[in-house]
Specification:
The chain has two domains: 128 residues; 138 residues, CHAD domain (Alpha solenoid), CATH 1.40.20.10. The protein contains twelve helices and no strands. Helix 11 runs antiparallel to helix 12.
Length: 282
């Protein structure tokens, strides 16, 4: 449960560091309605966000990291349940979450009441459309199976074409993999047999490797762009200094090229492993 401001104040008064709150396990019943499952998952995400507020205010980098994870998880949950929560109010919440994630700092105030009200009694929960109400009332088991299958298919489709993907396409693939991972973690308790658990862990482990390799590739791409910008800005420097820096940049570029090749190979191998794992929701 999120702590009150008074409780956080006593923590600081007593010299205690605010707790760092990580994502908690989510317990869902396979027969739960999709709408109820969304609320349970979204509450867990919100608890992680709010639980780290005091730590962020105190300048704790671990709390900041966990709050960002909580925000990303809530955005992923909104995507997973997009069919039932769609609407103008949800679009506003999504924009707020994206803005908070981008601008997050101790000076930012989270509108917790707005988020909580949207989760518990937002306009999405009072849908007049019969088809949307039916989607909200069907079991989370059915909804999760359909969504996971769709997300897996999107990732597997990229396996054969992976070596032809450009930086932007690899970035989109990394986001797709991340959304699959969060979705798999959200509904883990719905598919609770030993076989399902083993398959889920194997697919999530492979997905994590893909995500890590693609994330490192993105970092290299950013570093290369920064290096080129620095060299461009130094055209007015002395010729010798410029040559020395260009030589150093060339060495770094060579190392990064080799590293990129290894990361691309690692991502391709992880994608093959991901594809080889049978769906855990069947």
């Amino acid at each position: 449960m999120p702590r009150s401001k008074a409780e956080r104040g006593y923590e600081l008064l007593n010299g205690a560091s605010p707790a760092v709150v990580k994502a908690a396990d989510i317990e869902l019943s396979a027969s739960s309605s999709t709408a109820d499952a969304f609320r349970i998952i979204a509450r867990s995400c919100l608890a992680q966000i709010v639980g780290n507020e005091a730590g962020v205010e105190a300048g704790n980098p671990d709390a900041l990291h966990q709050m960002r994870i909580g925000l990303r998880r809530l955005r992923a949950a909104t995507s997973l349940f997009s069919e039932i929560v769609a609407g103008s109010e949800t679009n506003t919440v999504k924009s707020e979450l994206k803005w908070i994630t981008r601008e997050l700092s101790p000076a930012r105030d989270l509108d917790v009441y707005l988020l909580a009200a949207w989760i518990e009694a937002g306009a999405w929960s009072r849908a007049q459309d019969e088809a949307r109400r039916a989607n909200q009332e069907r079991s989370i088991e059915q909804h999760a199976a359909e969504q996971l299958a769709r997300r897996r298919k999107k990732i597997v489709k990229k396996v054969k074409a992976f070596d032809r993907l450009d930086d932007a396409q690899r970035h989109k693939l990394r986001i797709a993999v991340k959304k699959f991972r969060y979705a798999a973690e959200f509904v883990a308790s719905v598919f609770a047999t030993k076989r399902a658990k083993n398959r889920r862990l194997a697919s999530v482990e492979a997905a994590k490797r893909v995500q890590d390799c693609l994330g490192a590739l993105n970092d290299i791409d950013v570093h290369e762009k920064i290096s080129l910008e620095v060299l461009d800005e130094q055209n007015a420097a002395s010729p010798k200094l410029l040559r020395d820096r260009a030589f150093a940049a060339g060495l770094v570029a060579g190392q990064q090229e080799a590293q990129s090749a290894n990361l691309i190979a690692g991502a391709a191998a992880a994608l093959d492993d991901f594809q080889a794992v049978k769906p855990f929701w069947k």
